Amino acid sequence: MAQLSAEPRSLHFPLLESVVVLADAAMQAREPHRIVAALVEGLRNLLPSTGALPHDLLRPDPSGYARHELYRSPLHGYQVLAMTWGPGQGSSVHDHGDTWGVEAVLRGRLEVLDYRVIRHARGLAHLRVGDRHLLEDGRVIGLLPPHDLHACRNSGVRDTAVTLHIYGTPLEEVRRYIHVEDELYRPERVQLTSH
C-alpha cells in the first residue's frame, strides 16, 4: 500500500509545490463541485510551467500503468498522485469511491471513456458508453460522484503518458467493472497500491 506521507515523496518535480498550494487554497471552497472547479481552473494555468518530469515517472511498468503517491495533506486529507501509462496501457472501467477528483495530463495523450449505469440486476450492472475525451498535454478534467465512472488508456503507440491526479480523500479502494457480455459488467471492490 501507499506510504502515508505529509511531505512530498522522492519524486519531486517543480509543479508539485504549486499543486499543493493550489489544492490547499481550493479546499477553502468546502463544497466538492466548487473545489473541483477551482482545481481545474488553477491546474490549467499551472500546467504550461510543468518543467522536466522526474525520470522515474517517464519509465513505464511493463505489467501495467503505475501509481505514484506524491503527497497527502495532513490538514485537508486530499491525495496527489502521478500515474505513468506505457503505450496502450489502460485501466478497467472504474469509479472513484465516494470522492471527487481532478485528472490532468502532464505528458502524452490519455483517452477517457465515460460510462453510465443504466440499471443493476442480479449482481450485474448494465453500463453504456457515454462521452469520449482525448486529453493531451495540459488538459484537465474534474470528477464528481456519481458521474465519475470511466476507463482510461494511453492512446499512444510509442510514447509514455504521465498524468497528475488529485483526490479529495486517499483513493485506496475503487469499484472496478469486469466486462461479462454485451453491456453487462460485474462490479467488484479493488484495493489499490502505489509505488
Structure description:
The protein has 195 residues and is α+β, with helices and mostly antiparallel strands. 16% of the residues lie in helices and 42% in strands.
Highlighted features:
six-stranded antiparallel beta sheet; Jelly Rolls; disordered N terminus; 42% strand
Summarize the structure.
This protein has 195 residues and is an alpha+beta fold. The protein has one domain: Sandwich (Jelly Rolls), CATH 2.60.120.
How would the blueprint of this fold be written?
Layout: H1 15-26, H2 32-46, H3 55-58, E1 66-72, E2 79-85, E3 93-94, E4 101-107, E5 109-121, E6 124-136, E7 140-143, E8 150-153, E9 161-167, E10 173-181, E11 184-191
Antiparallel strand pairs: 1-2, 2-9, 3-10, 4-7, 4-9, 5-6, 5-8, 6-11, 10-11
Helix pairs in contact: 1-2
Tell me the Rg in angstroms.
16 Å
Secondary structure: helix percent: 10-25%
DSSP helical segment count: 3
CATH superfamily: Jelly Rolls
Helix and strand content put the structural class at alpha+beta
CATH class: Mainly Beta
